Amino acid sequence: MPLPFAEPYKTKMVEPIRRTTRQEREKLIASAGYNLFNLKSEDVFIDLLTDSGTGAMSSAQWAEIMLGDESYAGASSYYKLKNTIEELLGMPYFLPTHQGRAAENVLFSALMGMEAPDFVVPGNSHFDTTKGHIEFRKAKALDCTIDEAFDTSSQHPFKGNLDLNKLEEVFKKHPKENIPLCLITVTCNSSGGQPVSLENIRAVSAMCKKYGIRLFFDAARFAENAYFIKAREPGYADKSIKQIVREMFDLVDGCTMSAKKDGIVNIGGFIAFRDKELFERSCTFNIVFEGYITYGGMAGRDLGALSVGLREATEFDYLESRIRQVRLLGEKLMSCRIPIQEPVGGHAVFVDAKKFLPNVPKEQYVAQTLGVELYKEGGIRGVEIGTLLADRDPQTRENRYPALELLRLAIPRRVYSDNQMLYVVECLKNVYDRRDQIKKGYAIVHEAPIMRHFTVELRPV
Predict the structure, then answer these.
(1) 218 is catalytic
(2) Low-confidence residues in the chain, pLDDT < 50
């Protein structure tokens, strides 16, 4: 008889969390302008806002914290991380940054400057900060994701894949010098945490070489993507995660990474390069925006913790435990007939808010409405991946209505128990059982000109 699953780690420290009453939560979310980002963490019971920087570090990572070399230049902690990146990813050059969006800012400054109105960056459902950095420079982010990604009931195993016909249309339509890079996000967060197959990466890489376009990863969740390749793609079941990772990165010219995800650290990021000339060009911007090139906005202790975290994140046992818990939440929700993006992705469960709340008009921010209702129900904080995040069209200033209106429940790494996941299920089921009563959403009171969802203030309609 096979043995039941057991987590490959044990708990050494616990952190108490406070329960609130529904009456308290209704007052708290109102005072936060109905923006879940504005809530104090002490007023949240289960925090699924993001998996970025919210994971639990291992004893080996905490040991590296104590060993951190805080020298301004040439610290030993920098070389530990440099060796790890070269060994795992095969990239000989890298720049540390304080987080992923800083890496995007440095790379895009080197490739596009501060204003590039004729430039386009094709990719698969660019993440919000990625699109923000592109559009801040007056360039355009062009989504070339396959159509199956926008059908939440489709069982396509690699919904993060790029549509090769869409991509080639971009390459044919725009001059090569106006396409600074093509970007593959692995896994693809904005389409529901969906993976990209190695077959697709290989085909995109060949097309980029044909047209002379650089190819980069947004590699925030590269290890989780490798796990899905091992689990779902023919021919990879017997390969190790590290072998698959190396095969993935051998097909690209570089990457940006928010290391707060698959680096399992609380802060940090980097850019990795194959090309020395682009690395040297980027060094200037790293010094201007982040710090000297061997620390780049990170403390030495964090560089060391990241060097360990990247190795731990590419261990199969860790990934199996991580993705099993995400799958558990998704399968329990589906058993309650709650519509989610299927198949379940790697870092989060994405609830299909349009199917969940069919009576709320799209102009009233459906996924945000669902997120507020879930917080009021059980003190659970998710995040809207929908119209608020899609922002306004830079030219018309009209709302952009994406094909998917999702509430993301992002699970921090090694933090919550399965019982806490079952609590989330029951709370969401309670909201689902009264969904027909929810007919109105929210209107904007105040918003920023770009990346508004972080600081927007709302009122009930």
Answers:
(1) yes
(2) none
